[in-house]
Amino acid sequence: MMVTLRELVPEDAGELLRLQHQLDQESKFMLLEPDERQASLCQVKEMLESFLAAETSILIGAEVDDHLAGYLSVRGGSVRRNRHSAYIVIGIQKQYQGNGIGAGLFREMDIWAMNNGIVRLELSVMTHNQAALGLYTKSGFEIEGTKRKSLIVDGEWVDEYYMSKILQKEKRIECQI
Q1: pTM of the prediction?
Q2: How far is it, in rounded angstroms, from Cα 112 to Cα 168?
Q3: Measured between alpha carbons, how far is 56 from 37 in angstroms, rounded to an integer?
Q4: Shortest CA distance to 87 belongs to which of 9, 162, 16?
Q5: Taking Cα atoms as reference points, which of 108, 103, 118, 124 lies closest to residue 168?
Q6: pLDDT tens digits, residue range 115-159?
Q7: What's the CA gap between 146 and 125, in Å, rounded?
Q8: Please, how many CA atoms are within 13 Å of residue 89, restricted to the half-sphere of its CB?
Q9: Contact status, residue 150 vs residue 162, Cβ threshold 8 Å
């Protein structure tokens, strides 16, 4: 299986929208339910344009056989106090999970983030999503806390972990007393 990772551009809007609808259908771990996604092709194209224009955001796609099989969205802060921080969303088609695509997307994200002044990466994940927790932990994310009753899925309360990864270690200031 040949996987190509690249930054998504406005011309990818149709493929991204198709992938998002498919993920809504096949996974209960994504935020939207199958009938909730209302974005038009034009709106997805505008969103991709906004990602390209933002210094602290990127959308990375994973292509398999010239079709989008997964994506990773990194949306950074827009003001001085939070522009070092970015929130992540990842989605990979079920048939391609477990093949290293997620790890590859995270490696690309780390390189991009370090080159663009991002220090803090954060995400949330349902506490029972063991596959995602394994990927995130392997990629250097740590659980910061639990968002209790964060979501309702199939009429049941679902807790989420809030996770983060710090890319730069803080410098210690040493002084003699």
Answers
A1: 0.90
A2: 14
A3: 25
A4: 162
A5: 118
A6: 999 999 999 999 999 999 999 999 999 999 999 999 999 999 999
A7: 10
A8: 11
A9: no
d(CA 48, CA 39): 12
Taking every pair of C-alpha atoms in the chain, what is the biggest distance, in angstroms? Answer: 64
- SS3 of 157, please? strand
The DSSP-derived string for 8-34 is --GGGHHHHHHHHHHHHHH-SSSSS-T
Is pLDDT above 90 for 171? Answer: no
The token pair that represents 58 in the structure block: 């990127």
- Angle at CA of residue 148, ends 36 and 138, nearest 5°: 85
Sign of CA dihedral 94, 99, 102, 105: negative
Burial class of residue 124 (count of CB atoms within 10 Å of its CB; 0-12, 13-18, 19+): middle
The residue among 87, 105, 103, 141 whose CA lies nearest residue 6 is: 105
Question: CA gyration radius for the chain?
Answer: 17
